[in-house]
Write a structure and sequence with these properties.
With 296 residues, the protein is an alpha/beta fold. It has 2 domains: 212 residues, 3-Layer(aba) Sandwich (Rossmann fold), CATH 3.40.50; 61 residues. Helix content is 30%, strand content 29%. The protein has 9 helices and 13 strands. The protein has a 6-stranded mixed sheet with strand order 5-6-7-3-8-9, with helices on both faces. Strand 8 and strand 9 form a beta hairpin. One of its GO terms (molecular function) is ATP binding. Pfam families: ABC_tran (PF00005). This is ABC transporter ATP-binding protein. Keywords: ATP-binding, Nucleotide-binding, Transport.
């Protein structure tokens, strides 16, 4: 299977408000995909639709080759950790593993118990008495022990301190390497995406602004600085993502597969944060931004 999530005209409406609308997306399998965007872009709605927790109001979504949560087999293909890393406060750690074993036909008890031992969690301790980082790790353990094809993580470390966040991400990446999962990780922390992901999607106002291999995106975006000029005069191969001007100077962020040979420009590379912010900044005067096709 080459595509793990495919959305066509996908939308979700709550009364008169669209939380997600006209979303087009095609994500490759076998990758760790970072999903970023501003608050209200529709990231959580998209992931809840992919997990089968919501039904679309328009369009369609296909996950691991079928409709989300269509049957028991389809449910088993997807592991999901929501933003609040839900656990049952009155149940013990051991109770959670028992629940997971009874609800999931593909449950791997050895994986669950090995992770609990490694984390140093007391099986008798109630989840409600665990720290935020421990609850997040327990929720991740529950998702991984399902042995899913796709792991969906909706800002799972948003409320954790830096040390707990680093430990969570480290253990996540080890599990990904061991189980060869496809992962979609939503995060507003660019450092987490940079550390963990090899594929990037930027979602703004329900629409994919850019998607592709992270290294390739970084390599094909450049910052140009030079004397003030009209960006429309650039070659057609240079797609202008953002532009800013002073009285004498123009600064552009462009995307191109070709070398920039114009000696009037000072050309610099960009980092991931520069890339993400450029596509998220709707106030930037974009001169030419044709529709981007998702890279496969």
């Amino acid at each position: 299977m080459s595509t793990v999530i495919r959305a066509r005209g996908l939308g979700k409406k709550y009364r008169q408000r669209w939380a997600l609308q006209d979303c087009e997306l095609e994500l490759p399998a076998g990758r760790v995909i970072g999903l970023v965007g501003p608050n209200g872009a529709g990231k959580s709605t998209l992931l809840n639709l992919a997990a089968g927790l919501l039904a679309p109001s328009s369009g369609s979504i296909e996950v691991c080759g079928g409709p989300p949560a269509a049957d028991v087999a389809q449910l088993a293909r997807v592991g999901f950790v929501a933003q609040d890393t839900p656990t049952y406060g009155r149940l013990s750690v051991a109770d959670h593993l028992t629940l997971g074993r009874r609800l999931n036909p593909g449950w791997d008890d050895a994986v669950a118990r090995e992770r609990i031992d490694r984390l140093g969690l007391d099986p008798k301790q109630r989840a409600g008495t665990l720290s935020g980082g421990q609850r997040a790790q327990l929720a991740l353990t529950m998702a991984l022990a399902k042995r899913p094809e796709l792991l969906i993580l909706d800002e799972p470390v948003a409320s954790l301190d830096p040390l707990a966040r680093r430990e969570f991400m480290q253990l996540l990446m080890e599990a990904v390497a061991e189980q060869e999962l496809s992962v979609v990780l939503s995060s507003h922390l660019v450092s987490d995406v940079e550390r963990a992901c090899d594929y990037l999607v930027v979602l703004v106002d329900s629409r994919v602004q850019v998607a592709g291999d992270l290294d390739e995106l970084i390599a094909t975006h450049h910052r140009l600085v030079g004397a003030r000029r009209d960006p429309a005069t650039l070659p057609g191969s240079q797609q202008v993502i953002s532009a800013s001007h002073t009285d004498r100077q123009t600064t552009l962020l462009v995307r191109t597969q070709e070398p920039i040979l114009d000696p009037s420009w000072s050309v610099d590379g960009i980092n991931l944060e520069d890339l993400v912010l450029a596509y998220m900044d709707k106030s930037a005067p974009v001169v030419r931004r044709p529709r981007l096709e998702v890279q496969r």
